[in-house]
């Protein structure tokens, strides 16, 4: 088991799995913590995470109106896709903390600009002996107030099992 991985005994210190994973991200993943990444929901073969809108994460379009909100940089959505896709795999593994997971391929398709908080939901497609695949949808609230998909992605991840 990786030295910094939480143990199942550690879960007893937290109210739920979401809280434990949030603590792990905040304490061990400086970049994700800086982005404000939060673990919203953990299911069996699925996970939802979010990143709040922050102007430091935006790009303003050259032809934007003065009152137009800047778009979140696409790399923020890609980071969220990569992170939630890999972590979701752990929910479909018998010993979720006894493995290491590394991204081997990431595909992101951008559908529209994101001008509000990002919410990404990953669904595990398959976890084999050494490779897992997740599909991810990222949503954001559009200026018209409707929540819409802003990016979709698929990640393939190498699963390193101990033993």
UniProtKB/TrEMBL annotation:
Which domain of life, per UniProt?
Archaea
Instruction: List each copy of the Thioesterase domain by range.
Output: 71-140
Any one Gene Ontology molecular-function term assigned to this protein's record? hydrolase activity
Entry keywords, A to Z: Hydrolase
Recorded hits in Pfam families, A to Z, give: 4HBT
What this protein is called in its record is PaaI family thioesterase
């Amino acid at each position: 088991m990786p030295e910094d991985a939480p143990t199942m005994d550690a879960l007893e210190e937290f109210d739920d799995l979401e809280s434990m994973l949030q603590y792990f991200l905040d304490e061990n993943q400086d970049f994700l913590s800086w982005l404000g990444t939060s673990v919203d929901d953990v299911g069996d073969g699925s996970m939802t995470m979010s990143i709040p809108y922050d102007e430091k994460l935006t790009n303003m379009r050259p032809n934007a109106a003065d009152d137009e909100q800047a778009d979140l940089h696409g790399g923020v959505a890609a980071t969220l896709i990569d992170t939630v896709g890999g972590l979701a795999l752990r929910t479909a593994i018998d010993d979720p903390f006894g493995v290491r997971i590394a991204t081997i391929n990431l595909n992101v398709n951008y559908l529209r600009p994101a001008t509000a908080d990002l919410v990404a939901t990953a669904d595990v497609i398959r976890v084999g002996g050494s490779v897992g695949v997740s599909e991810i949808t990222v949503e954001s609230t559009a200026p018209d107030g409707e929540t819409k998909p802003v990016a979709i992605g698929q990640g393939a991840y190498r699963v390193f099992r101990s033993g």
